[in-house]
Design goal:
Structural class: alpha/beta
Number of strands: 12
Strand order of the largest sheet: 3-4-5-6-7-8-9
Number of helices: 8
Strand content: 15-25%
Bound molecules: D-MYO-inositol-1-phosphate
Radius of gyration: 19 Å
Largest sheet: 7 strands, mixed
Helix content: 40-55%
Length: 257
């Protein structure tokens, strides 16, 4: 039974009924936005990686803060513009935070869309198929809706508070996995893009401790959002990353929860 019907049946007041209706409406739009944005991602990925004249001009790759490990492409910007335009037209009173426009980040009580147009930009550029559109909706400062769409693998993970989490149309978490001991765990780790000793050395030490524990295996997918989807689907037991941003995880935390 969906959230609106459940609340109707339980006789809760109109305020809750309207809230549930809004949530379902936002959820439908979030999936629609992710699908359309994912189409842009997929077309660009295919035309870049399938064509014989690959060159960085097509993607207009730029480094952020002169760091070769931190890049953005013209497609990140196009997708973010598309998503923000859709949200502004559909929900003019909502706010948004996007990875490619990080001035004046403020989180208030109004519904706020937190967007990573391409999570896993490096993967996108290198043809490693773990990149996705990640869209989270935070309501009254609570991450309430999350959609992560990897169009290359044809996987849309989604979740809405009160409705549950899904991989495409399949409900996730029907039979949650028992927590495995470290020695039988597969662990997702990310190095991030910061290479200074003060940031990198403690991470390397922590990662070494994991492998020596020993854990069964380590994986690095290069996308925080995809790592969280792997946790939600039970493929990873642990995911660890330091120095993450809100747009990397806003959608994923709802899906995991
Ligand atoms: C990056 C990815 C990566 C993580 C970085 C993020 P981006 O996001 O999620 O896995 O290690 O910290 O910045 O730049 O590809 O959107």
């Amino acid at each position: 039974m969906d959230l609106v019907k459940r609340i109707k049946c339980s006789g809760l007041d109109l305020k809750f009924f309207l809230m549930a209706e809004n949530f379902e409406n936002y959820f439908t739009h979030a999936k629609q936005i992710a699908k359309l944005a994912g189409d842009i991602l997929l077309n660009s990925y295919r035309s870049f990686h399938d064509s014989s004249d690959q060159n960085s001009k097509q993607l207009a790759i730029e480094t952020k803060e002169s760091n070769d490990a931190n890049i953005v492409t013209i497609i990140d910007k196009q997708i973010q513009d598309f998503i923000i335009d859709y949200i502004k037209r559909t929900f003019p009173r909502h706010s948004f935070i996007g990875e490619e426009s990080t001035e004046n980040i403020l989180l208030g009580n109004e519904p706020t869309w937190i967007i990573d147009p391409i999570d896993g930009t490096t993967n996108f550029v290198h043809g490693f198929p773990y990149c996705c559109v990640s869209i989270g909706l935070v309501i009254k400062r609570n991450p309430s809706i999350g959609v992560i769409y990897n169009p290359i693998l044809g996987q849309m993970y989604s979740a809405c508070e009160g409705l549950g989490a899904f991989l495409n149309d399949e409900r996730l978490g029907k039979s949650p996995k028992a927590i495995a001991p470290l020695s039988q765990s597969i662990v997702g780790l990310e190095f991030g893009n910061e290479r200074t000793d003060s940031v990198l050395n403690p991470k390397l030490e922590t990662f070494a401790n994991f492998i020596k524990a020993p854990v069964r295996a380590i994986r690095c997918y290069g996308s925080a959002a995809m790592n969280l989807c792997m946790i939600a689907s039970g493929a990873l037991d642990i995911y660890l990353e330091a120095g993450i941003h809100c747009w990397d995880i806003a959608a994923g935390v709802v899906i995991v929860r």
